[in-house]
Amino acid sequence: MAASYSVFDCQAFQPRVVLSIGGIEKRRFYRRINLNDAVDGNPGVLLRPVQLATLILDCELHNHNRLDVVQQYLSRGEEVMHSLQVNLYRHGPSHKIAQYAFDMYWQLLYPFASTVLLFIDDLGGVGPVIEILALWARRARLSSIAAPPRILVLYHWRNRTEMDSFESRLRSRIMCTVSGTQPYSRTGITSPIYLQGEMAFESVQLIPTWKAASEFPSQTEESFAARDAAGYGFSSDHLKRLLQTAILQYSQSSGQQIDFVQAVRVCNPPPTQLTEKLIQFLSTTKDAEMDHVAVIASALDLDAHPPGMHFSQAESLLNKDGLSDQVCKKFTQFSLERQGVSSAHAHLRLLRKYQATWRDYVEGNLCFVCLVRPPSTTLDCHHRLCDACVMIYGSQVQSAIGLPVPLQEHFDLVIGSGIGASPDPSLIAS
């Protein structure tokens, strides 16, 4: 696979990602949306911007009768090559080569797309397209998709009669009419197909090729809005980094889609002794007048949403095992109420309420900012910090205070004073 990651630098803040699979008919569609349709040799998978808001993951259907080497392609910026180790050889069975290509599309690219374009004529007709959708549906039952995309099936008007049976054949093939499911009434090929309980795609829309270019902008906007509402509307910078992670992960061990929650925590993995550290914090500050629920929940929000991280839904980031309902509810509340404000700023604002209290508690084995990681740095005030807080939150701390002085000289100024609730041992559920 060849990619120039600099293409993301010219994209809108939140690119609408479209996975496009096809050949001749696909290239005709590109001409209609004023996108260069020229394909020289075998360029692999291309990242192709459409204006500023849309990025197409262009999967050209190559000659699957042979496995050709990816050729150089003139791209914007420096091209990055990723080598994939596969059990295929150049003149191997064509069906295995084609299967590998579609496996890669599913595992590597599908999780990033809010819209998927499938071209009936390029893929061999209605039957093969239904087989592709049925395969994706089966795989999604084994490993659910975080934000299922909308499928746009583009067909030539001459095939309209055959498309009349598309919905019934699709439902039959993926077994959506088994006992216990709701009956459906057909509304014609111009209406979206919604499959109850289906986890691989949000819906399937059948669109004639002559109409596709005019509907493309609205379809991509609607599908992206649904993805964004689910918490997966990544910024261009986050999208670039997540795609890099996914490609490296796939090149090392294919067979598994990217887990976005785990991927965003590669540089800041969850603390291994979270429960123990929180119990230690409660024990150390048991006589302190502070709102322990709020402090713990805010510290968890700080850990789950480090500065610069994509904001995910709170429920997807919190493992509730060992935490009380009070803490979980407060964590969700803080995550939603910040409204784009840095988690470090929000946490420090809360700690300012307890300046006098914090000065009296100096625990040698507790980071007094995040509370959940072992400390490694001692400040002049004898409070201690972990490496993560110094490296990840240090600049945020200085920005929040507005004083251009070293951390050691101003940490006592950060921690404020106030009165909160009495400590409650039930904060950590047994």
TrEMBL record:
Domain of life: Eukaryota
Keywords: Metal-binding, Zinc, Zinc-finger
Record GO terms (molecular function): zinc ion binding
Protein name: RING-type domain-containing protein
Organism this protein belongs to: Fusarium oxysporum (strain Fo5176) (Fusarium vascular wilt)
